[in-house]
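Before relying on records like the one below, remember that each one covers exactly one chain. Contacts with other chains, cofactors or solvent are not represented anywhere in the record.
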Amino acid sequence: MWYLLKTKPREEGRAVAHLENQNFTVYCPWIDKLDKAGKVKKEPLFPGYVFLNNERVEGINYTKVRSTRGVANFVRFGINHAQASDDLIERIKRQEALLCAEPKAKFKINQLVEFKEGPFKYLQGIYLNKSGDERCIILLSFLSKNQLISVHENLVKAI
């Protein structure tokens, strides 16, 4: 069985490293995400949480775990500590492997694109970068003037 631990904000990596230094078996699923610049960065699948295996340790010292850098506390439901089965952890690991498959950007930087619909339909522009999860910045040359516009990625297609 695995205990669920709450970490301090954005300190999942620190909590894992310090718990592993104390010979605990810890699991924190990570996924690859593209940032706005199109670079891959790792983020926790469950921000703020890590799993701690209780089978390798004879009687977990709860105070020692809670005082570990990066750890906020055990997740509890009343007086019972939240636990996850080995089967659930294995399923999460399989899902993590699927999610970590190389994320592919729809477009490459400086790629020529064409608007599929909307007021710019059939006009061509140059894809510059992402601007959020589903938006992108397009350089549109119109009437001898260059203009940067932010549009939904579904409005453009690669040429």
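Helices lie at 12-21, 62-66, 86-99.
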